[in-house]
């Protein structure tokens, strides 16, 4: 097994090309390397645990990048599976967005079903990446609440947003759906006003039931229609398929998230490139009405 266990690597080349290789690259190897029987057993054990025990999750360390200029917006940025807030904070710090404060939390370490129950930092449990896989709404709600909590202490005149990569993008999109509905999946009131959502190489959890939930409420439809969302996805993504990102964009748009931009990148796999981050910068600058010209 030559699986790599660190989620990503930063390769700095002549063009300062930062290439984030996702931990999922290791998954194929890891899961295949586990005997089938053991794989099933660990899943059973974990599912049983979920049903009978209320999970207590402990989130990891949070890294904050202070704005270099006047503080106008705060964005919580969420890492991918197996990663932590530190690596993204280093990348975000270098972006030409001096008016944004970045908050980069780290996910709880938990057994992840797609890894055969192997513990890794993850925003929620994930079994398989398909539209038919059951979603871990308990885990999603806990993470969405942790993120909203981080934003809730920002001053009232600061615009708030959530972004993320891969599973972090999925959590950001889930938060967007909670914001629109005014409540988490568990019915508790969603406490903050979101102004921008960015999802890179991600997907939308709970996509199939979203439309009914939004269409059922006038307020939810209004909030969905007014929340700007930027989705970016590499055409060559071999971890979260491009089609999957595209479908998520379609589900969101059908559910009434009309203020949505979906960008595809030729030749891009499950990582980010400066061209994509430039798009994120320009988009945030425009949507959040940040000062200064670009
Ligand atoms: C955070 O993740 C990086 C790899 O992405 C790793 O090198 C580093 O040790 C991790 N830091 C912590 C505190 O876990």
From TrEMBL:
Listed name of the protein: Phospholipase/carboxylesterase/thioesterase domain-containing protein
MF-aspect GO terms: hydrolase activity
Phospholipase/carboxylesterase/thioesterase domain sequence ranges: 63-284
Ranges in a coiled coil: none
Swiss-Prot/TrEMBL keywords: Membrane, Transmembrane, Transmembrane helix
Transmembrane intervals: 20-36
Phylogenetic placement of the source organism: Eukaryota, Viridiplantae, Streptophyta, Embryophyta, Tracheophyta
SUPFAM superfamilies, per database record: alpha/beta-Hydrolases
PANTHER family the UniProt entry points to: ALPHA/BETA-HYDROLASES SUPERFAMILY PROTEIN
Organism superkingdom: Eukaryota
